[in-house]
Amino acid sequence: MRIACLQFNPQLGNMAHNLKRAETILARASPVGLDLLILPEMAFSGYNFKSLQDISFHLEPTAAGPSTSWARSIARRLKCHVIVGYPEYCAHSPSAPQGSMSRYNSAVLVSPQGNVLANYRKSFLFTTDETWAEEGPGFYVGDIPGGLGKMSMGICMDLNPKKFLAPFEKYEFAQHVLDTGSDLILMPMAWLTLQPPASIIEDAQVPDADTLAYWIQRLQPVMDNGPTGVSEETIFVTCNRIGIEGNAVYAGTSAIVGITKGNVKVYGCLGRGTEDLLVRDVPGAKFGGMDIGRSR
């Protein structure tokens, strides 16, 4: 199975620039034979909006806005599944008060034929999300057609303890992965770094090791009780963004990781400040684990 993460630096509120930037990175990489392409959380709107008023112009109708249109076009062109995060608005039923709507931090999954397969709404909200979004109904699980396996999808904060108030050892998302027997864990992110802003320039090519270690730590139940053979690895894929938005500094470090009981294998990882397409082959029905390196 060939997976790609498109890590880049979206500019807040600049949809046209962000769409063009993603296209440029894809064109430079010229990937072939992809099964799955994943982009960051709120990839084309930017993330760090301060209020509902700030983000209202950038909300997109459920699986029908410019982010989904882009995903459908790229999915057909590359003949692969595509996941992209976006800010969603959803009109209520006709019986609801006129003009009322719900808003979510969401991610859409599109098939190689350009069909929308799933629309996941972030369950655990970060403080930035809480200024405009509602909680989704729960973590997603579903089979990806084409023999790619069962997928659990979350978005960024879903990997943390809920509201940072739940016990660390509760591992809500990881337990969901175990309970559903998922083969793939897919997470668009806009994850912050604890490192100083200068580090994303001075050490742009270097992954944020603390961030990557934390992500893996949050999947501890999968490491403790997951599959035992490399042919049955649980594949964790996270596509983060880079850059700075106001006081938000993002960690980059998009990664593709294989997890078996007692073992973790990092198939590939990008730097904390690099715009690039990470492409890796991982064990699965189509490829069996050959490491092809980064696509350019």
TrEMBL record:
A Pfam family hit: CN_hydrolase
Any GO MF annotation of the entry: protein-N-terminal glutamine amidohydrolase activity
Domain CN hydrolase residues, every copy: 1-284
Origin superkingdom: Eukaryota
Protein name: Carbon-nitrogen hydrolase
InterPro entries (UniProt xref): C-N_Hydrolase, C-N_Hydrolase_sf, Nta1
SUPFAM superfamilies in the cross-refs: Carbon-nitrogen hydrolase
Upper classification of the organism: Eukaryota, Fungi, Dikarya, Ascomycota, Pezizomycotina
GO terms (BP aspect): protein catabolic process
Transmembrane parts of this sequence: none
UniProtKB keywords: Hydrolase
